[in-house]
Amino acid sequence: MSDIADLDITAAAAAISSGSLTSLDLTEWTLQRIAMVDTHLKAFIEVLADEARTSAEMADAEIRGGTYRGPLHGIPIAIKALYDVKGVRTTANSKVRQDYVPQTDSTVVEKLKDAGAIILGMLSCHEFAFGFDSAPTRNPWNTGHIPSGSSGGTGAAIAAGLCFAGTGTDTGGSIRAPSAANGIAGIKPTYGRVSRAGVAALSWSLDHAGPMARSVRDLAILLGIVAGPDPRDPHAIDIAVPNYTDALNGDIRGFRLGVPTNYFFDDIQPAVGDAVMGAVRQFENLGAAIVPIAVPFDDRVIDSWVAIAMSEAATYHQLSLRSKADLYGEDVRLLLEAGELTLATTYINAQRARLSWNSSLMSAIRDIDAIVTPTLPNTAMKVGETSIRIGRKEETVFEVSARLCAPFDMAGLPAASIPCGFAPNGLPIGLQIVGKPFNEETVLKVCHAFESVTEYHLRRPRLPGLQN
Question: Is residue 142 part of a domain?
Answer without folding.
Answer: yes
